[in-house]
Write a structure and sequence with these properties.
globular
Length: 197
Amino acid sequence: MNTMNPLTILFASIFTHNIALVYILGMCPFIVISRNYKTAIGMGISVVFVVTLTAIINWPIYWKILVPLKSEILSYLIFIIVIAASVQLLEMLIEKFSPALQSSFGIFLPLITVNCIVLAVCLFMVLRKYNFIQTVCYSFGTSVGWAMAIIIMAAIKEKINLVSDIPSGLRGAGITMIIAGLMAFAFMGFAGIITLQ
């Protein structure tokens, strides 16, 4: 098993190894949902919930059931089933307690199921041989890092729309990718402080 300090993993997964800005994962909702600050906050919280919950469930399934049975080949199937069930649970909770938030997500709430960061966290947990506490810190930190990136992106885009007129060729995904690149440069300031193994 990996011997890294869980707090180091938490810090690194938020800043130096931000999954959206370093690994460029989770871009579909990152580009579309980041149009509105409040919706971005809701999506960020949803992703934190799903990513953390699925990693907490998938770790014991993989290390305590699949590995002893030498059935690691089933891990992708199991991980995807757990992810889909977690998203379904989240969708039911949001529908019950915040229908307005659910309608603002549109199709992107169920699409958390196929958001690559959810599966990537489970696969990194296996590849890096994290123990349970490291997995919890990594999954929480990664999802918080993604949420922070989408919330910052939404705030910047709302501010730009208020104070400037973006050329028509850069509206939408174009300006989003430019801002994401600048944000990635800013996060590179943390590079070298901590590396994940």
